[in-house]
Specification:
This protein has 245 residues and is mainly alpha-helical. It has one domain. α6 crosses α7. The longest helix is centred in the middle third of the chain and has 17 residues. It starts with a helix and ends with a helix. It has twelve helices and no strands. Helix content is 58%, strand content 0%.
Length: 245
């Protein structure tokens, strides 16, 4: 295990640099300065972060071009013309539904930071956020909406939601670090098929399913290496995959 810790520490340091940003979906919130713009851009970028990276980044380029200089101003207006924009499971109506719930959230309930802080204090963060989106979803929301905001009660890994939280909580140069109500020590590793495969190869993960129990298992192991910042190893697992293609 000490050898693996040394490997992971080296890789985390190597890949957690500003150069990481340009090819990652985190590039989008980095384009803004205002907190609300950063939050909204990060949340939407995380929702789209599945499938082929070059494809979803191209779709996000289109989405943010519609939003102009300020995603917050665009969301605040509440009227969205997406010109048929879609992506895999996301139909135009699903993307429109994400934006409409964000409009309600920022108009009436303090925005994403307030929602996640209330969820964190409730002791059931993911379920609290999910319940808010589900309870405010328009009738036009389809299966893509519920794929984008999965119900944690189903036991899934919640990969994109944990990635969003990593972006919001951890400090730069890559992550944005604009939220301080959640300690980095309580973040969970975003587990997708890539991270899970590499973690099993390294002997860090024994569970075969890529679900919430796998997230808990892997996060606990990584917490032994870095109790205050276990999610820094997200960069290491990415780097290991790059180095061992």
């Amino acid at each position: 295990m000490p050898d693996i810790k040394e490997l992971l520490d080296d890789l985390a340091q190597k890949y957690e640099t500003e150069d990481f940003i340009k090819d990652d979906p985190i590039q989008f919130p980095h384009k803004y300065k205002r907190r609300e713009d950063i939050e909204i851009a990060a949340f939407l970028a995380s929702l789209f972060a599945y499938g082929k990276r070059e494809v979803f980044i191209r779709k996000l380029d289109i989405l943010f071009s519609y939003m102009g200089k300020s995603p917050y101003d665009y969301i605040s207006k509440g009227a969205f013309d997406l010109n048929g924009l879609n992506y895999r499971f996301f139909k135009t109506a699903d993307i429109d539904a994400f934006l409409k719930v964000l409009h309600i959230l920022y108009t009436n309930d303090g925005g994403l930071s307030a929602l996640f802080e209330k969820g964190y204090k409730s002791g059931s963060l993911m379920q609290y956020v999910c319940d808010y989106f589900y309870s405010h979803a328009p009738k036009t929301a389809g299966g893509g909406f519920y794929f984008g905001i999965p119900n944690p009660a189903n036991g899934g890994a919640m990969k994109r939601m944990w990635m969003f939280l990593r972006w919001m909580v951890r400090k730069p140069p890559v992550d944005l670090g604009i939220w301080n109500f959640i300690p980095a020590s309580e973040l969970k590793i975003p587990v997708d098929t890539h991270v899970a495969r590499i973690s099993r190869e390294l002997g860090l993960l024994k569970r075969n399913s890529n679900d919430n129990r796998a997230v808990e298992e892997l996060s606990e192991v990584l917490s032994e290496f870095s109790p205050n910042d276990p999610v820094k190893y997200d960069f290491a697992l990415f780097g290991y995959g790059v180095n061992n293609k």
